[in-house]
Amino acid sequence: MSIHSVKRELFEKSPGKNMAPSHSFYYKGQGLTKVHRRCVDYESDYTNEAYERVSYDNGRTWSPWKNVYEQIIKKWGHGEIMWAKPPAVYNPYHDHYVVLCMQRLFPNGHREDYRLLWSGIKGTLDHTFIEVSKDLENRSSFLVKYEEGADYSGKEYLDREYTEKNLAYFGCNLEIDSNGDILFPIGARVKACCKILGIDPSDIFPSCPHISNGLIVVRGVWNEKENRYDFYPSKPLVISDLKSSRGIDEPTILLLKSGRIVVVFRGANTDLPGWNTRIAPDAPAHKWYTYSDDGGKTFSDPVPYRFDD
């Protein structure tokens, strides 16, 4: 008799007013070493505390908590760098782990840059990375590119060839295709998507194309010689700001047995004067979906994901 799944629910009371704790677990290496991370947020879209503890026996016993905040938030001058790294995905075809992660730059500090963002001015700067590791200890990191621009080596905080290029909010997940390729969605800026498509942003998303996102699905093909993935971005997809005032948010990819690739994403009916919002006051905030039947090269026009679908 085999164990199909093991489930444990953990509930933690808020440690204080306006404080939201969160928990995640991941394995370190290929044995039974498990890491438990606990974060506390008391500002929107920002991690204020981070701790980890380690178990060497798959969760039976645990080490004391250790403050790991500097692994998530790094300071430089008046600026900050925040890293978001979800648990790794194992690729059995190439016997390694893959992590879809994101770096968010705050050139002026997170409070000022979030103030700018919600005022309709580009403040935060997001880039998506892929990390590859054999053992979850030593990792190689690669910037996901969909246009020409500088790579990242830790010194490009103010290099416009980095900060103004390949901006992308990472998608919610990464999937392994049946041939060992990886597939993942990213939220690339509407302005950049329109440039690639050869269209004027004012024709489809005139309100705030510099801070809202379109969709690009990236296929990663393992390059054995270079020991890295080669990235092949799809044709970008942009939704009108009359349908979703914030564009395409939090895309999630699904690989169907038929070969069809589906991406579901969150729409928005947010009405913000600073963003020059055009959406109707009574417009619903749908979930939307789009699909591809050509391996992720092109995607259909998005339609609402209704409850009866």
Question: How would you explain this protein's 3D organization?
Answer:
With 309 residues, the chain is mainly β. It has 2 domains: 58 residues; 228 residues, no CATH class. 8% of the residues lie in helices and 36% in strands. The protein is built from 4 helices and 19 strands. Strands 5, 6, 7, 8, 9 and 10 form a 6-stranded antiparallel β-sheet that branches. Strands 11, 12, 13, 14 and 15 form a 5-stranded antiparallel β-sheet that branches. A 4-stranded antiparallel β-sheet has the order 1-2-3-4. β7 and β8 form a beta hairpin. The longest helix has 9 residues. The mean pLDDT is 92.
Topology:
Layout: E1 20-27, E2 34-41, E3 49-55, E4 66-67, H1 69-72, E5 73-76, E6 79-84, E7 89-91, E8 96-106, H2 110-118, E9 125-133, E10 139-143, H3 160-163, E11 168-170, E12 175-176, E13 182-188, H4 190-197, E14 216-223, E15 228-233, E16 249-255, E17 261-266, E18 287-292, E19 303-304
Runs in which pLDDT lies below 50 for 5 or more consecutive residues are: none
- The average pLDDT is 92
The shape is globular
Number of domains: 2
Q: Helical proportion? A: under 10%
Main sheet overview? 6 strands, antiparallel
**What oligomeric state do these chains adopt?**
single chain
Content-based structural category: mainly beta
Total beta strands: 19
Span of the ends, CA to CA = 36 Å
Figure out the total of helices: 4
